Amino acid sequence: MARILYTLCGTDVTRPFSPHCWKAVMALAHKGLEFEERPMPFTAIPELEEGFSKIVPILCDGEERVADSFAIARYLEEDYPDRPSLFMGPGGEAMARFVEGWSQTQIHPAVTAIAILKIHDMLDEKDQAYFRKTREAALGRTLEEAAAGADEARAAFPARLQPIRHMLRAQPFLGGDAPLFADYIVFGALQWLRIVAGPVPFLPDDPVSDWFERLLDANDAIGRSVTAA
Amino acid sequence: MARILYTLCGTDVTRPFSPHCWKAVMALAHKGLEFEERPMPFTAIPELEEGFSKIVPILCDGEERVADSFAIARYLEEDYPDRPSLFMGPGGEAMARFVEGWSQTQIHPAVTAIAILKIHDMLDEKDQAYFRKTREAALGRTLEEAAAGADEARAAFPARLQPIRHMLRAQPFLGGDAPLFADYIVFGALQWLRIVAGPVPFLPDDPVSDWFERLLDANDAIGRSVTAA
Hints:
The structure is a homodimer.
Chain A: E1 3-8, H1 19-30, E2 36-40, E3 58-61, E4 64-67, H2 69-79, H3 90-122, H4 125-139, H5 143-147, H6 150-160, H7 162-167, H8 181-197, H9 207-221
Parallel strand pairs in A: 1-2
Antiparallel strand pairs in A: 1-3, 3-4
Helix pairs in contact in A: 1-2, 1-8, 3-6, 3-8
């Protein structure tokens, strides 16, 4: 197949878990484009495609190579304009950057606090050493110290979703009546948590839970191809 | 003039301060539409326009009446399609609802904690009684109890702006290269704080401060028509 998406996995190649890779998977599925997913360990990524990128997702689409989930979404929108839109106009593309800013500064740190040791434990020995070294340098503490806040982070998690909950009073998706790339940005973060650390903590009768279930069902339920931990 | 915008003020009619009303002011200015602003005390609002709405902003545009800032933005976008767009497409309109959700659940409570007693003190006696009664019922505590967290809320305020800071790495406005209604949603919250409680607390050399200054300059600097407290 001419379209390949490199993603991230631990020792179990059937459980790719990276939030950014899930954004790209959903974007490709949204466009109705077939692709072969190739999940890779962290330490194999710099060798892929002649050292094209240090990070995944990497999309190889015929002769084209694109790394970074947002860049992939923009590439797909531009190169496949006749397929369903991921942004629904320039305003939607611009504001998806704010959704990305919110997700990465408010949701990703919480998922990290909940799941960092579980991620470590999914990796092979070589990746574990790489993961520990890079994450401990970034966090300024050991993985075990970071994981000490996991229960607290889990309890506080539903409150972090308040902006989505408020938005859902007006419409069923960030994209309005149907999901757009902005939905997949937040979905990716919650899917990461679901695959690595089990069901996402929601409020009782939480409309955000309903929204997440709708996204698990979207695009031929590709999000359900990996079960919750 | 046929176009009237009712907004909110305290005893000083020259210092309208409502975040929602500032969103509507910026939306009208963005569209290049002239209007007469009529700032009103809280307790006068239910009498306006034959009891049309319990809340401001209320826009009267010839025969049309619209209340609620988002509804006003949608009305302007639909009725003045040849003027500069407030949403840049349906994706931008939908995602502005998420920006609203973020602003109202993450920024408004912080502004309330910082400024609630200062707002009270700006009002006339009748409005003070109304404000105390409704806000204490909503908050479940006295205004003085709520204001006890003001210093802490002020110190924590710059961190609340982290999603904007992250987004500004990619582009100068939520709307992309130029401001859209989503920018005005967040601007309204910060302008409310600025008018009621003085300069917005930012980080040193904060790109969010630069963004806010750009919005104070936007639309013929209409945001600077009221000085910081």
